[in-house]
Amino acid sequence: MTQHKNPYKPIDAEVIDIIDESPTIKSFVLKPAEPIPFKAGQFVELTLPGSGEAPFTPSSSPSQKETMEISIMKAGRVTGQLHDIPKGTTLGIRGPLGNGYPLDKFAGKQVYIVGGGVGLAPIRSLFLALVERKNDFAGIVCRYGARTPEDFIYKHTTFNEWPNIDGVNMKLTADQGNDQWKHNVGVVTTILSPDDVKINNSVAVVCGPPIMMKFVTLKLLEFGFKAEQIYLSMEKNMSCGIGMCGHCMIGKYYVCKDGPVFTYDQIKDYPKIWE
Amino acid sequence: MGTVFVENLKALFDAVSAERELYIPKNAGAHYVYKLYRPDEEAVFNEVRVCTPIKEFLFPIRELAAVFPQEEDQFEVKPFAVFGLKDCDLRSIEILDNVFKEDDFKDPLYISRREKMFIIASDCTEPAENCFCYLFGGKSWAEKGFDMNVSPVEGGFLVESGSDTGNDFLAKAHFAQVQPGQIAQRDENRKKADQILAENNAKFKLDRPVQEIVEGADGEQLYTAQAEGCVECQACTRVCPTCHCFYLQDTKLKDYYGKMKMWDSCMRMSYAAVAGGENPRKAISERIKHRLLHKFSYYLQRYGINMCVGCGRCIDAESGKMDLRRLLRELNDEVNRK
Ligand code: SF4
Ligand code: FES
Fold first, then answer.
1. What is the pTM of this model?
2. What's the burial of B325, exposed, middle or buried (CB within 10 Å: 0-12/13-18/19+)?
């Protein structure tokens, strides 16, 4: 009998740590039974055995091999249950899946990263990968926004570490501030400026809730970015993660296989990409 | 590859079923369904495709796709044969093969079944009213994609082999030789059946490539009109031999956990909804349009062929309200008017 590797079958991954990031987001440090080498922007399907499965993009650096970090926002049934599991739980994991960010295409350019909410998770992985080979790029410019200061994730790194890395330019914003808030107040588009990067030698990477991605994309186009310079990390309903079940289609593309990273140019003509 | 003659189907079925389980068409009201063959069974020749889609043999409605944590997967599939597949059925298998056997990921369940399936095709002698394979390059008989093909002639049937497995089988079976004139007679029958198809479909013939039609037509009004008659039963996608949407459902088994792979339908309301609540295809009309675009544009761009074989099962299942042929013809007219 012919044996084929079964792409539906998860491998074990132990939850070795859980970090409360914000009122609705927790990060899980996982130790898979075998390493899962991935590229920044690729995703995995995480199974809560017997209950359900959902796609997540790791937030840890691809060069961190033994463990993998995944930040999960409480949004539905499975993510809600995941928020309730204790340390030591064994989850299932399938992957890596999807294409990831084309770092080689970014070489020599300024990388303009715009993130919102839990969208910082994939961006963190990309950010770490970029910083590790910083000299390959003309600079890293990062703009990140969340609803309130409490909603910021990776607080320590985003507030203290990243802004101090040489070659990194960072700005933060909160839709609503508070007394201690020293950064900008307003939605993320209010901290974007056409002078942030040299537009003709840069790529933009956008990741966040659909509505935020939409307005950021429109803003970038207004600044003069071309549709093929804007990289979007798309979120669609997924099940199989391997280009078979049909759930995740945007036009002819399977988000799970041809994405989740697309240039705006690839998908702009399809209906309702932001919904 | 050789051709032989058998006087009755029973002789063929007995020989095939001696080696593997054989599924044959059985009358069920106005239609045929598949049933396991037993030697005391009546051997019927289905003049047209069976009403259920062939995908059921390769991709069952519900199956256990993975068990974990556990070392080995065992997909024990016994060799089996199916009789009575038509040209449209064979083309539907080709369409599914592209999806489940595509290079980087392969579906081990599908492939195990596919490797074990012995395909005995047969000519359509009486194409049905709703058969529109003719519009998409199909015809009443198959040239490839089978292990054996059966064609009725006077006094019996010609059996042609189309693969090494088919050849081996015929070599062992010792059936009679083809008589002079029988091949010509078969070809004559085929021509007549193709003629019926051409006549039945004359008024639906499209005057531009179907991709151009589904991409070029806005279709707003037509899709909305279709949606009004739709009760979201999803029958069209279930009977469709090429529709292959599914979802994985996690379950708890006695000692393990499992993932069930179950048929799904893009006609279902929450099919594309995400956890945050967004849904790109809330309206039924948007789902119908997506379904057509998938079949005649997206799939085609990916694999080079249409994802519809024109078997007409969706029209049968629709009790006459939604007719894909008519819809395509109307979209065609809309594009013409532009
Ligand atoms: S859409 Fe209808 S006609 Fe086309 S393959 Fe499916 S069932 Fe057959
Ligand atoms: S999630 Fe199944 S095709 Fe993409």
1. 0.92
2. buried
Position of tokens 């609803």? A147
Which amino acid would we find at residue A64? Q
Q: What homologous superfamily is domain A11-97 in, according to CATH? A: Translation factors (2.40.30.10)
By C-alpha distance, which of B38, B31, B80 is closest to B58? B80
Distance A243 CA to ligand 2 centre (A): 5
Expressed in angstroms and rounded, the spacing between residue B59 Cα and the centre of ligand 1 is 17
CA–CA separation, B49 and B126 (whole Å): 10
Percent of chain B with pLDDT over 90: 73
Residue B100 and residue B66 in one domain: yes
Name every chain B residue with its beta carbon within 8 A of the beta carbon of A275.
Answer: 278-280
Token pair for residue B131? 């058969």
Instruction: Give the Cα separation of A172 and A170 in Å (integer).
Output: 7
Report the DSSP beta bridge partners of residue A170. A142
| Residue at which a domain ends, from B168, B203, B238 | B203
Same domain, B129 and B214: no
Domains in chain B, number: 2
CA nearest ligand 1 atom 7, residue: B240
Start-to-end C-alpha separation, chain A: 44
Contact A8 B298 (CB under 8 A): no
pLDDT at A191 over 90: yes
Compute the distance between CA of residue B6 and CA of residue B12 in angstroms, rounded to an integer: 7
Residue B40 CA: distances (Å) to CA of B8, B26, B43, B81, B278: 14, 13, 9, 18, 56
Nearest residue in A to B274, CA atom: A237
Out of B244, B272, B297, the one facing A237 most closely (by C-beta) is B272
The pLDDT value given to residue A12? 94
CA of B313 to the centre of ligand 2 (A): 25
What is the ipTM, given to two decimal places?
Answer: 0.89
- Convert the pLDDT of each residue in A121-177 to its tens digit: 899 999 999 999 999 999 999 999 999 998 888 888 888 888 888 889 999 999 998
pLDDT single digits (tens) A205-218: 999 999 999 999 99
CATH C-level class of A103-233: alpha beta
Q: Is pLDDT at A1 greater than 80 in this prediction? A: no
Count how many pairs of residues, chain A against chain B, have C-beta atoms within 8 Å: 134
